[in-house]
Design brief:
Structural class: alpha/beta
CATH architecture of the largest domain: Up-down Bundle
CATH class of the largest domain: Mainly Alpha
Shape: elongated
Order of helices and strands: HHHHHHHHHHHEEEHEEHEHHHHEHEHEEH
CATH topology of the largest domain: ABC transporter transmembrane region fold
Number of strands: 10
Largest sheet: 6 strands, mixed
Strand content: 5-15%
Amino acid sequence: MTQNKKQSFLDESLQACKIALRYSFIFSFFSNLLMLLVPVYSMQVLDRVISSGSIETLVMLTVITFIAILGYIFLSGVRSTMMMKIGNWMDKTIAPQIFARLIESTAQGRKNEGTQAMGDFQVIKGFISGPTISTLIDTPWAIIFMAVLFIIHPVIGYTTLIWGAILFALAVVNEIVTKPVMDVASGHAIRASRHVEASTRNAEAVEAMGMVGNVQKTWSEQNQKSSMLQLAAGGKAGMIGSISKFIRMLAQISITGFGAYFVLANEMTVGGMIGAGIIAGKALAPFEMAITSWKGVISARKSLERLRKILGEAPERIENIDLPEPLGKVSFDKVYFAPYGNSKPIITGISFDVEPGEILGIIGPSASGKSTTAKLMTGVWKPNSGAVRLDGADVYHWKRGSFGKYVGYLPQDIELFAGTVKENIARMDADSDDEAIIKAAKDANAHEMILALPLGYNTEIGDGGAMLSAGQRQRIGLARAFFGNPKLIVLDEPNSNLDTEGEIALAGALRNAKENGSTLIIISHKPGIIALTDKILIMKNGAVASFGARDEVLAKLQGKEMPMLAYKP
């Protein structure tokens, strides 16, 4: 049931495309009807104009046919434009929803399939708005041409019908023969693509430790398997395509032969013979084109299946109405959480409260649940049971666009976007005020560091901030978290890459945020940062080991577990 809801937006959007496709179907009917006038023109010229010698009849037929051709061109142009507009509508309507759902899915710890999903969307869009779907829409109107052939002569009609059935059977054989191979080839191609992404993402480690040959070998194996299978499928499809062309030629010869026989037997006119040959070619064309375009049909269908599966597994966030600006009170109420794909909880029934304007330090050994707590606090992850609230409102169901204005978050793995320092601090909002950007940088004590960059705030930082040092990335990430005077600021290991100067700047930034009335949650193992907190939460094995005022908690630790402050998460 849940999966159907998650898939509904995609299916509903594709259903909306069907309305436009119905109009395309209607245009196709009239276009194919007008196409009949060309062979009819040939028949009339041969059978009436030449025998009667009437120039007036020739002129009239030519004018009518010319007008019909203009009508055909107009309808074809309208249909082509309409199909392109469908593609544009899909880009504006469906693609953003897919993008947002994929961000949520990856943030929830699911496999990052964003590149694959957006690639599948492009395949589906290309299929719907491209020539393949137009060919399929034209196929049913082959019945019109068949009916005309039966009117000209039943034997010609039956002959064309039989050849059409043979061509259709070849299309079915093509599907049976190539689909399984293409499915396996597609799987290998996807794995090869993911391996490239992983390798380039970890390029420094790969290059430094001489792993290029190993990762290249793994990629080559997947890529070669995909290429060989595609080659095999392409060879089979090519053979079937060649057979279909041979069948088409045989059909043309047999129809022409029967037509000539019936002309000699005075059962058909010469014009009828010529016209029947032209009409038969148009009647058989969709069947032959179906074979050549079948690969596109298979690819689009497979892409739709994959996209439905990916979106079906993605989380669906039910968002409430916009809520007023919070004061900053954070509450955990008997929260249990197990990550996606695991049944064993890594957060087990934690409860605590942080009052507005307080600084909470979260410490504990590795895998104790500290970073998970941060993700639950910011609404990135949803508890399996219990609730995480900001001023009494469930953070997971708070509208993301509104919630983000009140929350600053610095994750443990700092990710910056390709662009300028200014754009990253402003959270990629092109309409942000320069004054607010500079204020965030000053609050984070990063202003002087940014001014020292080659172009200051307009310095391009490269993909993922590659042009910056780890410490610089962390401080710009901190400025981004401070942007907009958020009421809740969550910092996961904010000093992991900082030098002494950076540590001093961070301490000042935390005091600035507290003075601005922000509630701060700091995950850190360094005593210097812990000394700035009002409260301490010690976590162990996903549970609260100790919680309370800083001095009280530290007093309890005296002579027991003070080394815990030196643990790295």
